[in-house]
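Extended Data, record SAM-dependent methyltransferase
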Amino acid sequence: MTPTLVRHHGYADSSAPVDAAARARDWAEIQERMLAPLYESVFDRLEVGPGTRMLSLGCGSGLALLAAAGRGARVTGVESDRERLALARERLGPGPSAEAGARTAARYARLVERVPAAAAGEPPYDLLTAFDPIGSVAGDFEGLAPALAAAMPLAGRGATVVLTGWGPPERCATAPVLRVAARLAGPARAPRPDGWRPALRDDLEEVAARAGLKPDGSGRVSCPFGYADVESAVRGLLSTGLFDAAIRATDRSQAEKEVAEAVHPHVRPDGTVWMPNVFRYLVCVT
């Protein structure tokens, strides 16, 4: 199947607005792989493979799509960030320089900016995933709800929906680093609609209830954040978007400095950074 595609490393001067293309590249090259254990655990549990039709909401730069397509699944990725979507095209789109595995995956994938409308004669999706973890930004429930509402009519009866989120703060070494985002945003500006907050125990269950989904199991997955050095850690963490409110409230150079200081306790003797984390997933049925 031919894919349907819809629409310089490093940041500029640290006092300037974030370079969207550079941040997306940092996400793809540094940060997205930190969630690979989560993707693989979900795919193992659900036995994703030939015959699976997956719709991935917030597919990022396509790593989860590539993993599922590599198992033989037919996948559609939805991503509103155009820079990340462009990088997903590079991973999954056909081209003379593409590796054989990427060319194979491209036959099973299509990428779109918004949830597609149902097409006549097209079979329904049997797996919907939301791999962009919720429970760390105020209001992220509301951000996911419209996408779920738009996707539900595309799912077959009894389809599986997977929601993912951050684990308990006490199980996530990155949580104290993320608190820098809340502190820099400033109490005078709280509550911010996009400010960081600690994950809550029932975040995923609340989203499922609002969407009318029936929980059918859950799991926890170890997803350590490992970086080559502090600079890579700062770039990776800022690429998540969790520090955007902090950067607007101060500036990027201040955010970079304070994130680097917060990361320092996790620097190992060889200069690498290692932060163990736990993420949750909730399996639901339509």
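Summary. Residues 56 and 96 are 26 Å apart (CA to CA).
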